[in-house]
Amino acid sequence: MSTSTIDRLEGSRRAARAAASERAVSRAEGWRRRGPLLPALIFTIIVTQLPFLVTIWYSLRSQNLLRPGEDIFVGLSNYLDIAADSTFRQTALNSVVITLGCVLVAMVLGIVLALLLDRPFAGRSVARTMLITPFLVMPVASSVLWSVALLNPTYGLLNWTLGLVGIEAVDWTSTYPIVAILMALVWQWTPFMMLLVLAGLQAQPKDVLEAASVDGAGPWRTFTSITLPHLRRYIELGVLLGVIYVVNTFDQIYLMTAGGPGTASANLPFYIYQRAFLGFDIGQAAAMGVVVVIATIIVASAALRLIFRSFEVKE
Amino acid sequence: MFRPPRGGSPVRATLAAGAAAVALALSGCAGAGAVGGGEGEQIVVAIVSNPQMQDAISLQDVFRAAHPGVDVRFVSLPENEARAKITASVATGGGEFDVVMISNYETPMWAENGWIENLQPYIDATEGYDADDFVPSVREALSYEDDMYSVPFYGESSFLAYRADLFEEAGLEMPERPTWDDVRELAGELNDPAQDFSGICLRGLAGWGEVMAPMSTAINTFGGGWFDEDWNATLDTPESREAIETYIDTVQSFGQPGAATSGFGDCLTRFAQGQSAMWYDATSMVSTVEDPASSTVAGKVGYAPAPVADTESAGWLYSWSLAIPSTSEHKDAAWDFVSWMTNKEYIELVGEEIGWERVPPGSRLSTYEIPEYAEVSQAYADATLDSMNGATQDSAMTHPVPYPGIQFVGIPEFQDLGTRVGQQMSAAIAGQVPVDEAIAQSQRYADTVAETYRAQEEQ
Amino acid sequence: MSDVTRTSRGRATGGVLTTLTWLLALAFFFPVAWMAATAFKQENQAASDPPTWFFAPTLDQFRAVIEGGSGTYVANSAIATGVSTVLVLLLGIPAAYALSIRPVEKVSDVLFFFISTKMLPVVAVIVPIYVVAGQLKVLDNIWTLVVLYTAMNLPIAVWMMRSFFLEVPGEVLEAASVDGAGLMRTLRSVLMPMVAPGIAATALICVIFAWNEFFFALNLTASRAATVPVLIVSTMTSEGLFLARLCAAALLASLPVIIAGWVAQKQLVRGLSMGAIK
């Protein structure tokens, strides 16, 4: 049986820890404690933060790799260009649509599947194994699988299936590119949500459920008034982690639509990638990166407060 | 597997976890030498994964046998990806590659920047290489200040392939110099979407090397262009507009399904599988279209010049060529490979080992004098050479322009500009944005680029 | 309502739900099964309209993938995945210890810092990384990927392992230190055995993410250091008919992680929630 961290920390441990931190930690002891942390911390700072400082520096310059010798300081002009770039706004919107669309649909499907799997039936572990498989397929592999084998307008399986019920062939990746990408993403992330919700369901105290059923509450009442509130933290956690991963989606877009047609299905990571490795406009790409990072920090600090609550991080 | 060994030492448990990870990753791995190289010199060759290049990879053992000291490794990617990687590497001096496949678009600019080696000394020092044998228009396009900086693997123009068998059946005739109006009419006659058969295949995939190549030739022949002589963007002039509208309407009305995401490769598959009556694209298509092993229409195809409007010809000029980045530390070995892949013997080798119809076309005049090749290429040899000879700005455009290139604009910004405009056109083909809007947006992009050049002119 | 009807109605509903579960499970699994089936086809059967359902299976595509020089890619993926996972554990275990058992000041700030690096789009730093790697002559070098994958997985690993360490009852450690066991011995003989399953879960997650990583591999490698996801992309030629071989490559590439995930489902849940769920 599983329980969540939320219920995990015992009162005694908490008390012991509080006492420990109240004691003034001596200088030497402080360094002894910090010692084990430093290698990881320093490594992370060097590898993730230094490049970002360079990005900021690039963002203040006009540099196109294809025109060597024209590397000049331009102040904030790259940022002004971004403000005027309608494609940047469109791709930002796409990022939001793709991220929220994927996470919400996957979560709803995940809850349904988790509820179905939470009942005893023969072969349950086989069904669960089948259901988690999409999450384990390499994203690059699943992208080509979807774009070529399933959604191809001529020999794709989805159109053939739709044809059986008399629906005309649809050219998914060019007519509904975002829907096509969402299909592949939802397929990949539903198992993730399902696993988290399933863990939540299995951590549900059985006596409460029994009490509810003795009280004569129907299954729907029990679900909405007991199960759903209990699942809330698991759902929040799933949504937050899902957002962290899905917002950076690159593989599916790169391989399924290349951001197209036009820039209809490009998200911010893909658009920045294109500006950097197609336009070679380093200043512009760097400025976009900085803008995205600032936006992420704003959104993330709200999200992180929620995460911290889920993990019960305390000083 | 993930239980700790009972009572076992914790260090061992950690190692076990790590070892499990490694074992997992290694599953089924032959463990070839991944880090470091073999003996001798190792060169890395970056190429575009078109069929002719795949053939070269499959023949690499022949090169190895002749040059035992040189270990060749290939990086082969689809066109857009290859271009991004190669450009990034060469422009930043990344130095990952010793041989790169580029084109007549990059060669003069990169030569000017000093990013690629002058190959003329190597050419002159290599006996029997015979650079004079290269198709003249191609040789010129790959030269900078009269020295060749890259050598052609194959050269191409564009022409119109059509199913001669179906034309005959339907009692239709392909004019000697078809116009875009003729093409539209013929495509309309043969288009049969119910049978998944399209009147014509035209590229629609975003990318300056994809949709913008055939579309630019249409723009040229209708009297439009990217820029006029004074560096004014001219994508929204009536002439350019008519060309763009004609192209988009043709592909929407009589073109293949999924047009907005189909590039050369997709069209090739479709035409070779007999699902299209016509296809306006690169002359290099013949290597696959006429190969019975990969095509169901071999021997049933006729070839006509690129469709025109107001010019005498309209075909483009393009060459996939090999260059050596200045950062390469193995330039001699790199040249060994470059010369192997572009000399006369290589053509013979492909002909004998793989098939004469698979020979890389349009690079050397002598190719067309080989009897075996002349035999298989009867249907298209003349059409190819004619198209290539006619592929000059004089005969494919109505007015002079301030840049080199026919289906591209030979300035560094074009890679980006062409792709952005291509994205707009691709979106218009998909019906995602109205054609007018796509043209207006493209014009704005082009104008931003032109500003820099107008400013330079004034100085 | 008699007990008998209630039971039989419950059974009928149960039957419907079970059937529904299986249908959904099959629907989700189907694309993977289709990929596997396609890998055993000839190319013209793979891209046929209507789809080919019955065919004589062939190993040609697998042979083509394996003989096409996939060994280097697999070896590179193995090194990048294996070494980065070991490094993550070496750096992450002490860090997690310093954030749980004997905590430093400002634990939540440090945790915030680690997790915030996961939220930053990697694409924002790819250009500096590319340029610097080019200047240091470490492009197309597998150790560059090792370093980046370590940095990519370290924050998650620290979070996960911290949550495992927090579960170790304080009394156990206190008892050990009262017994006079030295710090290192306490760690080795008391702490490690208790958290080993958690470390295994952490390793599994690191392996999955590193094995599947594509963005860095695409941009920073060429041939010597190219990994398996890059192999799949190179299998996409402009040639046209390539579906069966692509599926074979995709299947082989995904198989290690699929099997690992199947075997260690429980660790997977724990790992995916970064330790928040047991």
TrEMBL record, chain A:
<keyword id="KW-1133">Transmembrane helix</keyword>
<dbReference type="InterPro" id="IPR000515">
    <property type="entry name" value="MetI-like"/>
</dbReference>
<keyword id="KW-0813">Transport</keyword>
<dbReference type="Pfam" id="PF00528">
    <property type="entry name" value="BPD_transp_1"/>
</dbReference>
<protein>
    <submittedName>
        <fullName>Sorbitol/mannitol transport system permease protein</fullName>
    </submittedName>
</protein>
<keyword id="KW-0472">Membrane</keyword>
<dbReference type="GO" id="GO:0005886">
    <property type="term" value="C:plasma membrane"/>
</dbReference>
<feature type="transmembrane region" description="Helical">
    <location>
        <begin position="178"/>
        <end position="201"/>
    </location>
</feature>
<feature type="transmembrane region" description="Helical">
    <location>
        <begin position="37"/>
        <end position="60"/>
    </location>
</feature>
<comment type="similarity">
    <text>Belongs to the binding-protein-dependent transport system permease family.</text>
</comment>
<dbReference type="GO" id="GO:0055085">
    <property type="term" value="P:transmembrane transport"/>
</dbReference>
<keyword id="KW-1003">Cell membrane</keyword>
<feature type="transmembrane region" description="Helical">
    <location>
        <begin position="285"/>
        <end position="308"/>
    </location>
</feature>
<dbReference type="InterPro" id="IPR035906">
    <property type="entry name" value="MetI-like_sf"/>
</dbReference>
<feature type="transmembrane region" description="Helical">
    <location>
        <begin position="231"/>
        <end position="247"/>
    </location>
</feature>
From TrEMBL, chain B:
<dbReference type="Pfam" id="PF01547">
    <property type="entry name" value="SBP_bac_1"/>
</dbReference>
<keyword id="KW-0732">Signal</keyword>
<feature type="signal peptide">
    <location>
        <begin position="1"/>
        <end position="32"/>
    </location>
</feature>
<dbReference type="InterPro" id="IPR050490">
    <property type="entry name" value="Bact_solute-bd_prot1"/>
</dbReference>
<dbReference type="InterPro" id="IPR006059">
    <property type="entry name" value="SBP"/>
</dbReference>
<protein>
    <submittedName>
        <fullName>Sorbitol/mannitol transport system substrate-binding protein</fullName>
    </submittedName>
</protein>
Automatic annotation (TrEMBL), chain C:
<dbReference type="Pfam" id="PF00528">
    <property type="entry name" value="BPD_transp_1"/>
</dbReference>
<dbReference type="GO" id="GO:0055085">
    <property type="term" value="P:transmembrane transport"/>
</dbReference>
<dbReference type="InterPro" id="IPR035906">
    <property type="entry name" value="MetI-like_sf"/>
</dbReference>
<feature type="transmembrane region" description="Helical">
    <location>
        <begin position="190"/>
        <end position="211"/>
    </location>
</feature>
<dbReference type="InterPro" id="IPR000515">
    <property type="entry name" value="MetI-like"/>
</dbReference>
<keyword id="KW-1133">Transmembrane helix</keyword>
<dbReference type="GO" id="GO:0005886">
    <property type="term" value="C:plasma membrane"/>
</dbReference>
<protein>
    <submittedName>
        <fullName>Sorbitol/mannitol transport system permease protein</fullName>
    </submittedName>
</protein>
<feature type="transmembrane region" description="Helical">
    <location>
        <begin position="111"/>
        <end position="130"/>
    </location>
</feature>
<feature type="transmembrane region" description="Helical">
    <location>
        <begin position="12"/>
        <end position="34"/>
    </location>
</feature>
<feature type="transmembrane region" description="Helical">
    <location>
        <begin position="142"/>
        <end position="161"/>
    </location>
</feature>
<keyword id="KW-0472">Membrane</keyword>
<keyword id="KW-1003">Cell membrane</keyword>
<keyword id="KW-0812">Transmembrane</keyword>
<feature type="transmembrane region" description="Helical">
    <location>
        <begin position="78"/>
        <end position="99"/>
    </location>
</feature>
